[in-house]
Amino acid sequence: MTFPTYTPIEMIDRLVSFDTTSRNSNLELINFISEYLLAHGIESQRVYDTGNKKANLFATVGPNTKGGIVLSAHTDVVPVDGQEWHSNPFSMTLKNEKLYGRGTSDMKSFPAIFLSMLPQFMAADLHTPIHLALSYDEEVGCLGAPQLVSLMKDLRISPRIVIIGEPTEMKVVNRHKGVFRYRTTANGLEAHSAYPDNGVSAIFHTANAIHFLDNLANDLRNRADGLGNFDPPYHTLHIGTLNGGTASNIVPRQCTFDWEARLIPGSDVNALVLNPFEHYLDMNVRPKMQNISKQTGISTETVVQVPGLSPGESRDSEALGRALSGHNGPAGAISFGTEAGLFQRAGFATLVCGPGSILQAHKPNEYIELDQVEACERFMRRLISQLSRT
Ligand SMILES: [Zn+2]
Q1: Core-most of 7, 217, 315, 359, by most CB within 10 Å?
Q2: pLDDT (tens digit, 9 = 90+) per residue, 130-169?
Q3: SS3 for 298?
């Protein structure tokens, strides 16, 4: 029987060729991977989203025993809309020692390199398992990973370590900030602009709310604990979009803004941000609105909550991460969010370490350098020798 085989570069090309932009289904890619695994005798499990258009995939290589290592990646990529690409983003191009294509750095190369080396993992006499955990919808707020984590809990997976292969240039990272996204909507009362006191301006009251957040952002900057090695080394607030009003001569009925807090791990978003914000609205915004009309108000809904990653207790997992990556310096911090905090919150020792650079991610002409691919191959070879009997 012949097994399908791919070089690491061929497999990166194969995975890049599936347009798994988050708005699309990822099932063609999941089907390809599960068929490839099955051809090597490995069954995989899926957890679908509510519309059955996307799926997480979980598979185990080696003995089905306790311990082992989880290698995790998200399958979706960010859109290429409006970006100026010099080559087809969904067909890998090799040029000047770089592989170009959407997802080459963020983050199809990590699972591709593992999959291409599957025959070597199969040939080794592994004494503990390697689990592959692939998620959907990471780029739109880590929507798939919670079900993947639940599946792992149901299967009683108890790995020594979960490694999230987000691009860190193969350096070991043990902390990142948490990301919390919100949408705040003010509902006012329309009136002719000649009689503003007859209406409730959703925009004026939103401006008041935003002014509070601006002051709170300054306050958080001044209260930075300085422990985290983050850049910047403090909690941040940011307003991303603002929409309101219908015409210049109408007191605006509605105004909405999208905003986020990025907090140093271990911080409580309620205590630091949401409770003070609600208190301010209760004291300074809502009474003024409702004085004119009881139908008015301002409210906030949670859009995304991605917990931060804190340095774990386990020295064993960090030493293992260092041994695998060949990176000897202290574990680092990154400023972007990943699924790592979700795995850690479920009780798994978790690190981030993967090939490529976040500086290439989300941009036109995203690429990964060939030496990063080779560094990741070395990582996989060390993993084989760590986990095999021979
Ligand atoms: Zn990513």
Answers
A1: 217
A2: 999 999 999 999 999 999 999 999 999 999 999 999 999 9
A3: strand
CATH number of the domain located at residue range(s) 178-306 in this protein: 3.30.70.360
What was the pLDDT predicted at 220? 94
Q: How far is CA 348 from CA 152, 324, 345, in A?
A: 10, 18, 7
Contact (CB, 8 A) for 15 and 108: yes
| Residue 328 pLDDT | 79
The average confidence (pLDDT) of the chain is 94
Asked if 296 contacts 231 with a C-beta cutoff of 8 angstroms, the reply is: no
Residue spans of alpha helices (H) in the chain: 8-16, 27-39, 109-116, 118-123, 145-154, 202-222, 269, 275-280, 286-292, 315-325, 340-345, 370-387
* 130 C-alpha to ligand 1 centroid (Å): 21
Which sequence spans correspond to the domains of the chain? 8-176+308-387, 178-306
Query: Ligand 1 centroid to 336 CA: how many Å?
Result: 9
With left for phi above 0 and alpha for psi between -120 and 50, is residue 238 left, alpha or beta?
beta
Architecture of domain 8-176+308-387: 3-Layer(aba) Sandwich (3.40)
Residues 306-318 have pLDDT tens digits of 999 998 776 778 8
- Considering the entire predicted model, what is its pTM? 0.89
If you write DSSP's letter for every residue of 238-297 in order, what string do you get?
EEEEEEE-S-TTB--SEEEEEEEEEE-TT--HIIIIIHHHHHHIIIIIHHHHHHH-TT-E
Which amino acid is present at 74? H
173 sits in which H/E element: strand 173-176
* Residue 163 CA, ligand 1 centroid: distance in Å: 13
**CA 323–ligand 1 middle distance (angstroms):** 23
